[in-house]
Amino acid sequence: MVKKIRLQAPTGMHDILPETQPLFHKVYATASSVAQFYGFKKIETPIVEDAELFSKGIGLGTDIVEKEMYAFRTRGGDFLALRPEFTAGIVRAYIEHGMVNLPQPQKLYSYGPLFRMERPQAGRFRQFHQIDLEIFGEQDSVIDAQIIQIFYNILKELKFKNLIIEINSIGDRNCRPYYKKLLVNYFRSRESSLCADCRRRLRYNPLRILDCKEEKCQPVKAQAPQLVDHLCDECKTHFKEVLEFLDEVEIPYRLNPYLVRGLDYYTKTVFEIYDDSGGEQGSGALVGGGRFDTLVKMLGGRDTPACGGAAGVERIVATLKERMKQEPASGSALQKVFLAQLSDLAKRKSLGLFEEFRKAKIQIAESFGKDSLKTQLRLADKIGADYALILGQKEALEEAIIIRDMKTGGQETVKLDRVVREMEKRLKRG
Description:
The strands form three sheets. Strands 1-5-6-11-10-9-7-8 form an eight-stranded mixed beta sheet. Strands 13-12-14-15-16 form a five-stranded mixed beta sheet, sandwiched between helices. The protein is of the alpha+beta class. The chain has 15 helices and 16 strands. Strand 12 (337-341), helix 12 and strand 13 form a beta-alpha-beta unit.
């Protein structure tokens, strides 16, 4: 007996079905519109890069490189990786194409899939999408605030109401080494109280201990020295200015001394944005980012200050879907008009009619494969159409069409060459 194989999406990966596509499009369109208003230009980088780009840029001791990266060797011997984040690839492109020679700052945005072999859980996938914004060539603190403001505005445009920014400064190469020593000395004396991951981090990436969510580590972490108390004067001034800019535009924030982010390239400002509606952050941050002044040089370019962030599209979409469940239905439909046809001649006429509606930018649905008027009207009702246009053999011969109001059942016959204008008027009134 042949065993049946049940094919399904790989663990941690998911299909984006037709009913969810409009929400993904809405998020992307909103983000693109806001980004372009602020002068950002779109860039697309390969999904696959040299694995070394991420080990150098993100850091060998990070969870992403050490445990989560999809890396493989090609038949030709190249060691490649599916991109786990955008920034390193965009920096590579910035260097490779001499964008440092263009007028600065360079503002770039991107959108697309990323890959991390994480433990699948709510709001966390192994293939996921992000919207990424980066600004190169500007070290002023106002840029940090502007990046935060842009993401805040994107979420506001998407009707998020209870947003909160968590923010911290992790210093730079002048003050962070001393703080790391303090941190290592503190945690080393309490190593037995740390989880296995944090004991490993103590050797390779001690700052990440501050970001640990394991219950076992919380009491130890709470007594650890705070980086903000050990910032150099330059970093202290920079952070103070960022907070003042946020105050100026009335963007709510709270200081989080344990926020470090999971990437080695960050300097000075780091931030995350949460939907604070339920008072819980279990679903994770909607946006995360910060300043990365050393990364361009680290990857072989000129010393170039930079700042950026990324929004998790799946998490945003999940929140929007949940909101749609809770809110009463508005009764509006994407496709408000349904075209029903009842003969071969009507079908042929319908093709030209579709083009007229497309040019008028009126969304229209149909089911050309169905001949029964009852079946087609049932489908029109199912998709929530406000109007059904009925084109039978008689109407097609007379160059006419019936407009049926799906709510009242009322009908009116109009000439075919008038139907688009008539529907424009009715939809505008509605």
